[in-house]
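Teaching note: in complex prediction, the entire set of molecules is handled at once rather than each chain in isolation. The prompt given to students was simply: 'Predict the structure of this complex.' The entities are:
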Amino acid sequence: MKEKLKNAVVGIAGLGGLGSNVAIALARTGVGKLIVADFDKVEASNLNRQQYFVDQIGRSKVECMIENLRRINPDVKVEGHRVKLTGENIPEIFSEAQVIAECFDKADAKQMIVETVLGKMGKAIIVSVSGLAGYGKSNAIQTRRISERLILVGDNESGIDSVKVLTAARVGIAANHQANAIVEVILNSVWKD
Amino acid sequence: MERLKVNGVEKEFSVEQFPATVAELLKCLNIEAATVVAEIDGKIIEREKFDTTALSKGQAIELVRFVPGG
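The expected output is the structure of the full assembly:
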């Protein structure tokens, strides 16, 4: 089990509420390499659900997450990309990844990366999220395998546009569904390295 | 009647109402194309091809609709 995890490469697209939690769970689990990407800086308003600290406000999320992951598990290799991800750069940035976590906020960006990975990235699997806003209703958040290379987490309806609030616990539930699905994919896979 | 399987559920359409393309199916289900990933029989259909991808009876279509938040 350890060997399979150590040989795995996982892409994390976005380091907000989902991505910061997914990254930490996978680093603690012992995934060998994480490729993380985000263009944003840590803001005070992020700290209600994202895994950063007060003294990191104003700094790049990629830089801060690399720092935090190193403190948790220095054995994990982390490759950071401080860029805005697009349909053009995603296949290149995540080319090494066997599994990619979609950790965006906007619905059209979620659509874009899922379409890009499924359409342009060979065998890579994408684990995406739709519906995590609000609080309570823990068990409404589910993990479903939509097709061979697409796994979807969420309750499929609670958007920030309609529900208006994101809470640490419910975002964390969705993020850990994602991380758990990724671990399962890695451990059930037949990939070598 | 013509059938399509949409997200695992059989849907029936009269011959005249059968959606000709992915875009027409989305319209008929009242779903905004910008937030949808579509797969037909396990194959991804790019959003820019929703208008030009013809549907035929008996196909299995997965429509994944994204809501914002992350």
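Point out the following to students. Residues 168-188 of chain A form the longest helix (21 residues). The domain at 2-188 of chain A is CATH 3.40.50.720 (Rossmann fold).
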